[in-house]
């Protein structure tokens, strides 16, 4: 008997006395809590997102859509990036102003190969203002999870206002739980050892978020 079969067997035994007409979890749990805190318009929600991103030590930029290629080119140049990892579905126009060598997201790329890439540019699925969190779901403009965890520098583009929500409860209906969701609140950091903050332990040391006004 495999471990899987043992676990499923225990689950079946635990559920043996559950009546067939037992309400489903969704029906049994009351969800009458607030979906957001306060009454903010779109502009204030975006401002709150920027504030909380910065509070997590992400570097926040704002620009119009027309200025995005020039801004991305400048950020890569200022970082001294010699290479940038590009998800397969990223808008080609975003990097039109940059001469940095582009590296394709390939399934066969090893962690060592990805570690030699200087930067990665992605889109996002949704951005949550109250928590300063960016969520990636592996869509074509974001690529596989590993490309945003191995390189040391991540530039994430957020389309404003359509990708910005006020709170986690408002973000959840937009996300598919079957997709590989990555929740990012600032650059990778830990304070496990004597409360000394160390960045870049299990993800990018530098996170730059570009809020693009559509």
UniProtKB/TrEMBL annotation:
Top-level taxon in the UniProt lineage: Bacteria
Domain LUD: 47-212
InterPro entries: FTHF_cligase-like_sf, LUD_dom, NagB/RpiA_transferase-like
Protein's UniProt name: LUD domain-containing protein
Taxonomic source organism: Streptomyces broussonetiae
């Amino acid at each position: 008997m495999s471990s899987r079969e043992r676990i499923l067997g225990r689950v079946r035994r635990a559920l043996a006395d559950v009546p067939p007409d037992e309400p489903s979890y969704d029906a049994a749990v009351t969800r009458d809590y607030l979906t957001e805190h306060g009454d903010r318009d779109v502009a204030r929600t975006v401002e709150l997102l920027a504030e909380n991103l910065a509070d997590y030590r992400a570097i926040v930029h704002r620009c119009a859509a027309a200025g995005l290629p020039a801004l991305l080119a400048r950020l890569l140049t200022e970082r001294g990036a010699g290479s940038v990892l590009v998800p397969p579905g990223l808008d080609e126009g975003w990097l039109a102003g940059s001469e940095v060598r582009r590296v394709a997201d390939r399934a066969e790329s090893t962690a060592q190969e990805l570690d030699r890439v200087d930067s990665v540019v992605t889109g996002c699925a949704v951005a949550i203002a109250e928590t300063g969190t960016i969520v990636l779901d592996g869509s074509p403009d974001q690529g596989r999870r590993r490309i945003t965890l191995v390189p040391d520098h991540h530039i994430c583009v957020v389309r404003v206002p359509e990708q910005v929500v006020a709170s986690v409860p408002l973000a959840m209906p937009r996300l598919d739980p079957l997709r590989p969701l990555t929740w990012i609140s600032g650059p990778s950091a830990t304070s496990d050892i004597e409360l000394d903050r160390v960045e870049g332990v299990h993800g990018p040391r530098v996170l730059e978020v570009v809020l693009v006004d559509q």
